[in-house]
Amino acid sequence: MIHRITVLGAGFAGLSAVRELRRRDPQVAITLVAPRPELHYLPGIIWIPGGLRRREQLVVPLGRYFERMRVQFEAAEVTGLRDGGRVVQTSAGEVVNDALVIATGGRFIRKLAGIEHAITPCEGIAAAERIRDRLRAMQGGTIALGFAGNPKEPAAMRGGPMFEFLFGIDAQLRREGRRERFELVFFSPAPQPGNRLGPKAVAHLLAEMVRRGVRTHLGHKLVRFDADRVVTEGGEFPADLILFMPGMTGNAWFDATDLPRSPGGLVQADAQCRVPGRERVYVVGDSGSFPGPDWLPKQAHMADLQAAAAAVNLLADLRGNASNETFKVELVCIVDAMDRGTLVFRNQRRNLLLPSARVFHWAKRAFEWNYLRRYR
């Protein structure tokens, strides 16, 4: 009997799940459901405003990869589940499975008043292109950059890229010889932004802002955005361009299911990436709420580690074998600034920071090349 596995999502988590499943079982039938057969490499969007990357360099067609992996691709939006996850409801019909991996990512919380006045960079390549075009058109003014979290889900935030956009825009304006015409303001309701990276990283990032002449507005709850200003409970300041990363929650289609949810709206998971109370249903990446420390990262590296654990447990469950594979909790991050970067590493035992150097910028670019090579 050939088992049927359905993977939902063609982002980092979904593709890692496919890779790990196929590596461990060459016979299992894998179906992947996603709107398009392509990977958008979002870590690279930090380089779009400065011209180091273009859209076509970050969008990878997956047709040949799916052929190599013998994956059946279904172009559709997921709309719900039936029969405890054995049937996936989509905009193109139903997909039946013997095991299910949910890897459809997260959704940004867009409830703040006036959020339409801000650009949310990690919403995709188009958002980074808007930033690029706005910067080109601006002759001067104030650029405000910040992020917030999901109060009910501390791990559901993506603040790291905002530091990269901040330092990258600063470097770009200096390279163009017009930095003195702009004021950069970094804001966050957190008094110590970036604390998931560790205390050394927070100190380094704040010191780097001082060195670059970036003004900060920290520790005040956000009230609203206007077209020309940021308003917080601790005051307001003008802004000609607002870049803001809100906290994350679960996908809208989760609401059409009876999947167990965390207080922050993500799919509940155990340490083995199983969804409690569901037979052979797993979750990996940004879609899931996992046990672990409050700094548990939402990043591609973590999705890779979760996908490996999920694949081991899923295949064992299909074969009727006991398996309790868990994933390492590990944060690996290079905070890039266009021509140099700072390396941050954190796990349960240690927290390491290596200061800004050109080698880390090139290491980040080399990682991108190597990561995308496997899918081309």
Under CATH, the topology of the largest domain can be stated as FAD/NAD(P)-binding domain
Integer average pLDDT: 96
Q: How many distinct helices?
A: 8
User: Which CATH architecture of the largest domain?
Assistant: 3-Layer(bba) Sandwich
Q: How large, in whole angstroms, is the Cα Rg?
A: 21 Å
Task: Choose one word for the global shape.
Answer: globular
Low-confidence stretches: none
Which CATH first-tier class of the largest domain would you pick? Alpha Beta
Number of domains: 2
Helix content range of the residues, please? 25-40%
- Tell me the total number of β-strands: 24
For the largest beta-sheet, the strand count, sense and barrel status come to: 5 strands, parallel
Secondary-structure class: alpha/beta
- Widest sheet: strand ordering: 5-2-1-9-20
How far is it from the N-terminal to the C-terminal residue, by CA?
31 Å
CATH superfamily of the largest domain, please?
Answer: FAD/NAD(P)-binding domain
What fraction of the residues are assigned to beta strands by DSSP?
25-35%
What's the topology here?
Elements: E1 4-8, H1 12-24, E2 29-34, E3 38-40, H2 55-58, E4 59-61, H3 63-69, E5 71-75, E6 78-82, E7 87-90, E8 93-96, E9 99-102, E10 107-108, H4 125-137, E11 141-147, H5 160-175, E12 182-188, H6 199-211, E13 215-218, E14 222-226, E15 229-232, E16 235-238, E17 241-245, E18 248-249, E19 267-268, E20 281-283, E21 288-289, H7 300-319, E22 330-336, E23 341-347, E24 351-357, H8 358-373
Parallel strand pairs: 1-2, 1-9, 2-5, 9-20, 11-12, 11-17, 12-13, 19-21
Antiparallel strand pairs: 3-4, 6-7, 7-8, 10-18, 14-15, 15-16, 22-23, 23-24
